[in-house]
Amino acid sequence: LQEDLLDTTQETSEIGWTSYPQGGWDEVSVLDGQRRLLRTYEVCNPYAQQPNQSNWLRTGYIESRGARRVYVKLRFSVRDCATLKPPPKRNHLVCRETFTFYYRQAGGPTEADKWEWAEEKWVKVDTIGPGKSFTRDLGKGVQGPHMDERILDFGPINRKGFYLAFVDSGACLSLAGVKVYFYKCPFTVKGLASFLETPSSGEGGASLSEAIGTCVSGAQPIGTARLSLHCGGEGEWMVSSGSCVCDPGRAESEDGTKCPACPPGTYRPPDSPISRCLPCPSNSNTITSGALGCVCDKGYYRTPEENPQSPCTGPPSAPWDLNYEVTGPGAVSASWRAPKDLGGRPEVLYSVACKECMGGRCLRCGEGVTFRPSQVGLIHTRVHLSGLLPGVPYTLEVQAVNQVSELSPEQPKHSSLNLSISQSVPSAVPIMHQLHRSKQSITLTWPEPEQPNGKILDYQLCYREKGDEGESLYLISETNTATIGGLNPGAIYSFQVRGRSEGGYGAFSGSMYFQTLLGGSEQAEHQVDKLPLIVGSCLGALAFIGISVILFLILLYKSKRRETPYTDRLQHYITSRGLGVKYYIDPSTYEDPAEAVHEFAREIDVTFVKIEEVIGSGDFGEVCRGRLCLPSKREVAVCIRTLRTGSGEKERAEFLSEAGIMGQFDHPNVVHLEGAVTRSRPIMILTEHMENGALDAFLRQCEGGFSTLQMVSMLRGVAAGMRYLSDRSYNHRNLTAHNVLVNGQLVCKVSGLRPPEQGARQSLRWAAPEVLQLHKFSSASDVWSYGIVMWEVTSYGERPYWDMSNQEVLEALEQDYRLPPPPDCPSALHLLMLDCWQRERAQRPRFEQIVSSLDRMIRNPNCLKSVGVSSSRPSQPLLSNCPPDLPSLSSPHEWLEAIKMQRYKENFDQAGYTTLEAISRLTAEDIRIIGVTLSGHQKKILGSIQLLKAHLQPLEPLEV
Ligand SMILES: Nc1ncnc2c1ncn2[C@@H]1O[C@H](COP(=O)(O)OP(=O)(O)OP(=O)(O)O)[C@@H](O)[C@H]1O
User: Fold this and answer.
1) Which residue is closest in CA terms to ligand 1's atom 26?
2) Which atom of ligand 1 is nearest to the CA of 641?
3) Residue 23: Cβ within 10 Å count
4) Ligand 1, closest atom to CA 692?
5) How many CB atoms sit inside 10 A of residue 423's CB?
């Protein structure tokens, strides 16, 4: 930037400089080429009286206005001496073609008379003459238009002003224009530092003058570097150092020159690398400008760990769709759906409160009510409660909380549910026996239900003639014996019985079939031996059975009722247990298995079947859930297995034979066949729907979620189903947890019933040694498989023999290795498993004995308390479920990683368990105290500790 201090070219009136002596410089007005009026100074005294006379022309006082170096642009014209005439005689011709230019600094205007027209009082800038363009243009005098221009500069100026002087010593010259100016850098803001207007350096050339800046309002210098900018010789800023940054709550304006405060709704935090104001994060705001952070809206919070830039979040809304199902005596499983609004946070935990409310007063539920996996801090949307008393009105409240819930003054949102468990009802009567029969009556007896759940008030019998689709008939008996009269001679009747306690009726027993005597038979039959109740106690009973068999065969032969589907095979209804239990008939003995289906299964019209959802796929086609709605029957949920279209005859036969088998069985622990659709396509087999699906998957899903008693009851169910099947001489040949289905009440039912000719398809890990070596299937080989199922159940669906290869499993069995007890497995159960895994099949228990053993355990739960490896058994080496390289583990961290529990490393470290030795001594209580709260994890860790202990005492043989 250039600032003018003086410019004569703009003057139109008298300039008024001082000249000395008289007759020297003279101020005249001339017209320039464009005919504009110009004020000029002229001097021309070549014929001087005294040869060295100096003619001074001095400007007025020029204020320097801070200039350090001053530039002067002169416009002048000098007359060529050659054009002058010779002087008159007395005079000298002193012709020069130059003049001298001086300056002199002054603190202010000085009185004229104090001036001394002497060179030494002045500083000479230069002697000036015409430039190259000078032409000896004859005849054109001072008014000649040829003008020279020179720019001169001087400095440094350190006083308030100065004078200029032009000294002529005998030239003819005209000073047409004098312009005095200096360069300065204008006020500027750079890097948020402001720099005042700064004149260029007084030294001239490339030298710079430094300006020191200050941060603009609302900004602070960055670091300690000084804020400077340099003004170049021609008034241009250059070479900066240091800069400023806006204070928190303020941000740089768009032109980068100011730091205005952030407007309401925005903020800029301290130390933010971002130079803009940021909009407030969700659920927060600011009312004033210049905010460093935003304040959470009402009802929203930040945890102490969250920084002020985090969005604010709120507590979750209430869980919803809270409901429950009864899972056993005094036990319910409550489930709910996650809150619709999680308050903006990812986590949500649930706490369950249980109250007993009566007459408007609510108390906390008694100590006896237990919660699994826990009462508070639940991650999943399900909790299992047990120990609930029948008839007590309970209120369950499920609260949803997250990390900001405790910052809120409000109570966490919850859903509540009233529940009351009805008085427990008796369990099903397991079996019925015939005591007596005649042509019109049958006398039956039965044992008391295994769980009477109070006093049995009476029994209800339900019966109907086989093949009669009409109403069933009922009879009440106060004892466990009843005579049913008014029956048709020689007819087969199905009977069911159920007990009633204060809580109401229990479930009906499975249907059992008994036949009245034929018309020709005179003698009534008595079965006073109560055979099934005192099995094998009486030879007379055997004799009676023999007679019965012969009698029946003769009668059947006589009756020649070949059209009755039961006639040919009636011998199957006659067993060592007396009438009422039948053998299973292999459908492959029929020419067409569909015939077996029609004999044992009800044909269903497809119009009564409603498919709702595909739930899986089996070997033959899709498996669906649906509903069966038979006319004048209650609608039931069914599982529909379809035969894929395009299947061949062989597949159809195989598919239907399963229904042909299932249809012969009727037991609460064997999946019940509803019927089959064979007269339309696709062919379908309809069974009862088992809400919880396959047992293996269900166990894995519920890891750690069952009480020992629940596990034992589930196992009892499987054993009872198998006892029923083996009693009918049906060998399952592929009993695995995958082939057991679980319903909504946790009742386990045996499934996967296929005919033997469908190949030996037993999975190796479940197979008994004689099956593996000789393909010898028997009830005893099913018992071995049942032992493996027990292990699957108690290990919550762990794969038997873990990841060992088939070859390793075979070798281990060969060397009499057996699976060890899963973590927390009661010794009594493991002992039963070991019994099932006896190499000699004759030494294995029968299902009947297994059911009794389990019943004993249920009746006396104390015997389930001892856990782990039992020592009351002959030595039998154990398999380890630790990684095979257990000996290579050297630290607790490695051990935790090996069992996939590394998340607890810190807990073990903090509790000071830093050696494997120390860990091998930990108890269940220790594990809980150090913070392993999930019961599944506690079990896993404890199980591994047992093995660790065994590993650390390698020479001591382990007894089982
Ligand atoms: N009655 C049922 N109720 C509920 N789910 C069932 C029922 N029967 C079968 N399922 C489900 O359908 C799946 C397939 O049934 P299917 O009996 O055909 O099994 P599969 O032939 O052994 O095949 P996969 O081994 O693939 O399960 C089962 O694993 C089970 O989850």
Assistant:
1) 618
2) 18
3) 12
4) 4
5) 13
Residue 313 has what DSSP assignment? Answer: B
Q: Which residues pair with 77 in a beta bridge?
A: 174
Distance 429 CA to ligand 1 centre (A): 29
Backbone angles phi, psi at 2, to 5 degrees: -115, 135
**Residue bearing tokens 């004995």:** 849
Q: How far apart are the CA of 821 and the centre of ligand 1, in A?
A: 28
pLDDT digits (tens, 9 = 90+) for 474-496: 888 988 889 999 998 888 888 99
Q: What ranges make up the beta strands (E) of 580-723?
A: 609-617, 622-628, 636-642, 673-677, 684-688
Residue 561 has pLDDT above 50, yes or no: no
DSSP strand pairing (394-401 vs 504-505) = unpaired
Pocket test for ligand 1, best of 623, 692, 749 (most atoms within 8 A of CB): 623
Please report where in the chains the tokens 């363009």 appear, as a residue.
133
Q: What does R_g of the chain's alpha carbons equal in angstroms?
A: 56
Instruction: In whole angstroms, give the CA distance from residue 769 to residue 844.
Output: 13
Q: How far is the CA of 750 from the centre of ligand 1 (A)?
A: 12
524: number of Cβ within 10 Å: 14
pLDDT in tens, 165-206: 999 988 888 999 999 999 999 999 999 999 999 999 988 778
Provide the 3-class DSSP secondary structure of residue 778. coil
* Nearest to 166, CA basis, from 67, 65, 40, 273: 40
Nearest to 383 by CA among 406, 413, 403, 353: 353
pLDDT band at 446 (very low <50, low <70, confident <90, very high): confident
Go through the chain and tell me how many residues it has.
960
Tokens of 11: 């003057």
Dist. CA 616 → ligand 1 center (Å): 6
Distances from the Cα of 406 to the Cαs of 6, 300, 301, 353, in angstroms? 79, 11, 10, 17
Question: 736 CA distance to ligand 1 centroid (A)?
Answer: 13
Q: How far apart are CA 109 and CA 931, in angstroms?
A: 94
* List of residues 6+ apart from 674 with CB closer than 8 A: 602, 604, 628, 636, 638, 686, 687, 688
DSSP string across 211-223: EE-EEPTTEEESS
Residue located nearest, by CA, to atom 25 of ligand 1: 618
Q: What is the pTM of this model?
A: 0.42
d(CA 560, CA 914): 84
Question: Residue 615 CA: which ligand 1 atom is closest?
Answer: 12
Match 């919880």 to its residue by tokens. Answer: 692
Distance from C-alpha of 232 to C-alpha of 250, rounded to nearest angstrom: 33
Exposed/middle/buried for residue 796 (C-beta within 10 Å: 0-12, 13-18, 19+): buried
Tokens of 545: 């059975």
Distances (CA, A) of 595 to 247, 590, 664, 753: 92, 7, 13, 18
Given a cut of 90, is residue 404 above it in pLDDT? Answer: yes
- Side chain identity at 612, as an amino acid letter? E
For position 311, what pLDDT does the model report? 94
Distance of CA 160 to the CA centre of its chain: 78
Q: How confident is the model at residue 563 (pLDDT cuts 50, 70, 90)?
A: very low
Query: Which atom number of ligand 1 is nearest to the Cα of residue 739?
Result: 22
| Token representation of residue 795 | 């290990």
The pLDDT, as a whole number, for residue 365 is 85
C-alpha dihedral (196, 199, 204, 205), degrees to nearest 10: 50
Pick the closest to residue 706 from 625, 819, 618, 825 (CA basis): 825
Cβ 484 vs Cβ 440: under 8 Å: no
Question: What is the distance in A from the centroid of ligand 1 to the CA of 800?
Answer: 20
User: What separation in Å is there between the alpha carbon of 640 and the centre of ligand 1?
Assistant: 10
Q: Ligand 1 — pocket residues by CB below 6 A?
A: 615-616, 618-619, 623, 639, 641, 671, 687, 689-690, 693-694, 741, 752
Higher pLDDT, 934 or 380: 380
Of 501-510, 689-698, 923-932, the one with minimum mean pLDDT is 501-510
